[in-house]
## 1
Amino acid sequence: MEVADRVLVRRYAELDLSVGLVMGDGGCLVVDTRGDERQGAELAAEVRRITRDPWTVVITHSHFDHSFGTRPFLECAVWAQEGCRTDLIEGGAGTKDTWARRYREEGRPGIADDIEKTDIVLPDHLVTDRAELAVGGRRVVMAHFGRGHSSNDLVVHVPDAGVVFAGDLVENGAPPAYGDAYPLEWPTAVDGLLGLTGDGDVIVPGHGDPVDRAFVIAQHAEIAALAGLCEEVAAGWMHVQDAVRLSPYPEDTTRTALRRSAEP
Ligand SMILES: [Zn+2]
């Protein structure tokens, strides 16, 4: 669907993933490439049905469902935060094993095979804090506001359209995922994202339907509340059970956040 002028979002049933396409004059930008090479090829074919323009790829963070489908897009520039490259080098093979096993246990050997066969592409254009692109003459800003959902969340802002691709810093339809998160730092990253937006802007989460600024402000309050609980438990001022009871999120999400915030 077109969420703003020549900014498209495609939602997939698998993991309810949302990917993006920003079109300029004579160039386009693909935001995330899906979870394996076969899925990436399917996405590339869909983009090709919409535009023949050369593409650039940007990866919002290193998690496999956003980054493993890049191979079919080559040769092209692949942008990401610098921690994304590190994470894919250090953790990519392990992630393939983990998710292939998980899909096999779920009775889905096809997708498990696809993940195992995937050749992970390392991003070759790295962002530290901020970088700008001209996508067919259209300005796109990529920004990293510190660690949050992952070590390498990169927000993609299309100022002329009032659209921000949030990666998994914002989640719609499920609680935010804390498995690789930095719970105490996450609110600051969302603050940075909110600083890019105004009323009427569209924020595209990594999973689920696009949302408005009010949704992100509400989610920010929730992750800040959970960060506060994590701090109180870490300081010994609160029992885990009380944090679970007071948390805005389900018990498993809260326990994952508590564990992550206690890790060095
Ligand atoms: Zn993620």
Note: The chain has one domain: 2-173+196-211.
## 2
Amino acid sequence: MKILAIGANGIIGQAVTRLFAQQHDVIEVGHSTGELTVDIEDSASIQSLFERVGSVDAIICMAGNGEMGSIAEMPNEGYQTVLSNKLMGQVNLVRFGLEYLNDGGSITLTSGQAANHPMPGTAAIAMGVAGVNAFVSVAALELDKGKRINAVSPAIVKETLEQWGVDSSHGIAANDVARFYQQSIDEGKTGHIYDALPSLN
Ligand SMILES: NC(=O)c1ccc[n+]([C@@H]2O[C@H](COP(=O)([O-])OP(=O)(O)OC[C@H]3O[C@@H](n4cnc5c(N)ncnc54)[C@H](OP(=O)(O)O)[C@@H]3O)[C@@H](O)[C@H]2O)c1
């Protein structure tokens, strides 16, 4: 399978590409790193990426920046980043990528748990992840030729908490998150939001 992996060098992206590289031809795409680069905030950059790559069997996006901060303190730019990167960046990957997706192929986007578990300081990112999930649910009804679309909605990742230097015991390991992307590609579901949650011990 030829898989286009956007955000391949991120914490989640590295785990996902490691998993898929065992069996598939994975094209690793980043913003500043990778075989190819793209800026998902720039429609022309997305179109140019697909023109270079051509047809693919799967598109997975593990990119998408969000901003944290209270409503009282979040500047316009924080909301704009969520809208133009996390939300419209991924939506535009679908809009421009669909014609390059082979019949029966799949798209997997990344949302997150912020809208399911409200916490102070996450209003902007919660709005973005809810938007991604809503888009996926409706897009699945419109895709034809056996094409599918899902989202993986991870809880906070263990390696991210480690990077922040805080207790990581309640995080989900990136390798465990990666398995949900595999399910999205392999299981045949569409319009599904895979909640990637740490297992309860
Ligand atoms: N980590 C978590 O705890 C967690 C939890 C829930 C949801 N998520 C979501 O999961 C996704 C991945 O998270 P992560 O922690 O793995 O992120 P990360 O480590 O910060 O990696 C982000 C990746 O996205 C790429 N990227 C950044 N800006 C881009 C742009 N404008 N255009 C194209 N690519 C861009 C980066 O490329 P370069 O490396 O080349 O710069 C990098 O490969 C994000 O959507 C995040 O919101 C993460």
Note: The chain has six helices and seven strands.
